[in-house]
Every structure is written in structure tokens, then in C-alpha cells.
Amino acid sequence: MSNCIAIDGPAASGKSTIAKRIAEKLNIAYINTGSLYRAVALAALRAGRDLASIDRGFLDTLQLEYAKDAAGGYELKLNGAFPGPALRTPEVAAGASLVATRPIVRDYLLDVQRGFAGERMVVMEGRDIGTVIFPDAAFKFFVTATPEERARRRLAQDGEAADGATLAEVAREIAARDKQDSERSVAPLKPAADAAVIDTTGLSIDEAVDTIIGRMTRQQ
Ligand code: C5P
């Protein structure tokens, strides 16, 4: 069994905040795997590369590693630097979803993700952690919320929605990304058969975190 608490779910479901909080409470590492796909898209955009035809040669030019940031948590470094807010723009989010459809990209990033967990216990958050990266994870959760609730949350997050975007526009952007993530042929977004589905609509972050920790305690 892998030393991993897998937290998967669609865009803006609150899973990052929840996963981070669980890691803090349990005093273990937290890894956001969406950053990897975002970093590949960001690097390709910066290099003027066509996102739909990224090849192994391009991936091999990238240096991707998780390192502790000033706050003491693990953040992804791209070519030796923390990309910061550049990873969180709507263009990079859409580009991440596009590069994430490519098997060559997913294969490449699989090793980075498995390499990190190894011996230590980690909360790992993404789309395919419980289904592909760690199918034998110690605990698996699929965190979701209604599309309306997720659009509201995304709009409330600094810098994640385009300037001046309306709720309807944000809802459309999220729906397009979820569709692409769920319909791709490799590692599509879906709950693992043995994951607990947690609908956080109407739940506060604390309530969602308590629900998940409560389930893990009962499962042990
Ligand atoms: O979680 P985040 O919104 O940062 O992820 C950005 C994109 O990266 C997702 O829309 C998805 O296409 C891709 N992704 C993935 N598998 C993961 C994490 C993210 O395909 N484990």
C-alpha cells in the first residue's frame, strides 16, 4: 500500500485548500500535481511551442522538482525557480488541460509524482492520483461540488479568473476544462472505484476537512 492520501476532483472543487489543510493537521507533506501540468504548459507558452504537439525532446529540457518555499510547504520549481502566480492564469489552466491529454506528457510526469511519495506519507492532490498514480493509496477521496458553487469559488480566488470575468464566463471555462479532463482517453478525471466521494457543496472548508479526517480515522 502506498503512503499516500489521494485527493482527486474537478476544477475549483476546493480540493487544494482541503488537501493542504489535511496535510497541516497531520503534519505531512502536501503536493499539488496540477502544478506539473501547468508548468509544462507555461514553459511551452514561453517557448512559443505548440501545446498540442509537445514531444519528449521538449520535456527533457525542463527541470521540474518540488522544493520547500519560504512558508515551508512544497511548491513546484520550474527550471530552478518558483513560477508563482504565473502558474495560475486562465491561459495556463486551459493549456495545462490540453497538454494533460497527451500520453507522453502524462508518462513523463508519472515518474516525478511517484518519485516524490516514496517513503514519506504525503497528501497528493490531482485528477488521477487514486486511479493511476497511486492505485494502492492508503486513502482515496474524490472531492466535488456543484458547477455553480465551483464557479463562485473560482471567482473568489485571487488571480485565477480573468480580470472582469463574469460568473457565467468562469462557469463556462470550468465546464470546458472538466469536459476535456473527463473525456480524454488516458487517465480521465473520475472517482476511483474505491474512493469516497465528498460533495462539499454547502460545506465549509473545516467541515469538509473534518469529514475526510473522520473517515480516515474510522477506516484505520
Ligand atoms: O488542479 P489544477 O486545476 O491545477 O490542474 C490543471 C490541469 O492539469 C487540470 O485541468 C488537468 O487537465 C491537469 N491535471 C491532470 N492530472 C492531475 C492534475 C492535473 O490531468 N493529476
From TrEMBL:
InterPro entries cross-referenced by the UniProt entry: Cytidylate_kin, Cytidylate_kinase_dom, P-loop_NTPase
> SUPFAM superfamilies under this entry?
P-loop containing nucleoside triphosphate hydrolases
Location within or outside the cell? Cytoplasm
Where, by residue number, does ATP bind?
9-17
Q: What class of enzyme is it?
A: transferase
Q: Which Gene3D superfamilies match?
A: P-loop containing nucleotide triphosphate hydrolases (3.40.50.300)
User: What are its GO cellular component terms?
Assistant: cytoplasm
GO annotations under biological process? pyrimidine nucleotide metabolic process
Provide the reaction this enzyme catalyses. dCMP + ATP = dCDP + ADP; CMP + ATP = CDP + ADP
Q: Pfam families of this UniProt entry?
A: Cytidylate_kin
Q: Which family does it belong to?
A: Belongs to the cytidylate kinase family. Type 1 subfamily.
The cross-references to HAMAP family, in alphabetical order and at most eight, read: Cytidyl_kinase_type1
- Record protein name field: Cytidylate kinase
Species of provenance: Victivallis lenta
**Chain's gene name:** cmk
